[in-house]
Prior knowledge:
Layout: E1 8-13, H1 14-28, E2 31-35, H2 37-42, H3 45-53, E3 59-62, H4 65-73, E4 79-82, H5 88-97, E5 100-103, H6 106-118, E6 123-130, E7 138-139, H7 143-151, E8 156-162, H8 172-188, E9 197-199, H9 203-208, E10 216-217, E11 240-252, E12 257-258, E13 264-265, E14 270-275, E15 293-296, E16 299-304, E17 312-315, E18 327-331, H10 337-344, H11 348-353, E19 360-364
Parallel strand pairs: 1-19, 2-3, 2-10, 3-4, 4-5, 5-6, 6-7, 6-8, 8-9
Antiparallel strand pairs: 1-11, 11-14, 11-18, 12-13, 14-17, 15-16, 16-17
Amino acid sequence: MPVSPPRAWAEIDLSAMRHNLEVAREAGGSAIMAVVKAGAYGHGLEEVARFLAGCGIEFFGVANVGEARRIAEAGVDTRIYLLGPTWEGEREEIVARGWTPCLSNVEEAAHFDALATAAGKRLRVHLAVDTGMGRGGFVAAELPGVTDKLASFPGLEIEGVGSHLPSADEDEEFTRGQIASFREVIDLLGGTERFRYIHLLNSAGLLGYERGSCNLVRPGLMLYGISPLPAMQGRLKNVMTLKSRVTLVRTLPAGHGVSYGRQFITTRPTRVATIGIGYGDGYPRHVSGHGPEIFLRGRRFPILGRVTMDQLMADVTDAPDVGAGDEVEMFGANIPVAEVAAKAGTIPWEILTGITPRVVRCHCGTP
């Protein structure tokens, strides 16, 4: 049977991702943990993991065991690091597969030790230190009383220590204080020689701050071509371009409503292009009424009325050459995803990870 081309798709430029990885290496000068949680920020977990594994990185950072399992089952043998706390139902699989968890308390460590010892293994783990995020990890004041206990577990090899920057893109003063606090924690724990891996810097940390004592960095958003620090955007290349097609073009008379709620009423005869993408594909409904645009035939056109689940409409009155089947850029090189996010009242992370499964991912570029 014939197979129709996709109505909405995302082009993923792997050569641009390679460029962004090299920017991270230049900024950090150290080992790389590529953060690929949430489907590699919507870019396709397995495909991105296979690509980055060939780029010589040390770890993949994931949010949960389901993501870790998908990478492992994709035939990728790069080490996998679980970025947050785990609960007891997940730990047996973590030990069996040799994934690397971070530890937030002694009880978690004791359970991992018992499982690893029973399996005849020594599990490599990292200490998570809470220097201000408030999401997990040991608070610094707890550490003097627990380090000896942690060191006594025969089934664990404490090879690393890490923390997280919650405000590196918003609060420079706090972040610099947090980096200093983390350095003090490292000294408290025995110094940099105590650990094989020391990590703190996310994308904003890498682009805006000194590496300090860290020898492992965790780029996430910047790998996908978006800088959390706008001044650094020029150093990165766009990776995802979200596209759709014009499905219909017709002229509506003056006084005609467009889309649900009739929030937009034509004031003149208006040539309207219907485009086959909507919030069901992850293009945010909340841009409606805030001046969103599409890019078509080399120029921008305004979206009219509300974004609907499967379609949206744009004013192409001044472009008589626009027709059904034309490709439309929703965001990418010509309309930055950060612009779309701002008009939706959100952040680029949410836009990228919100692109739904019915949008076909097309990976291209030099592998």
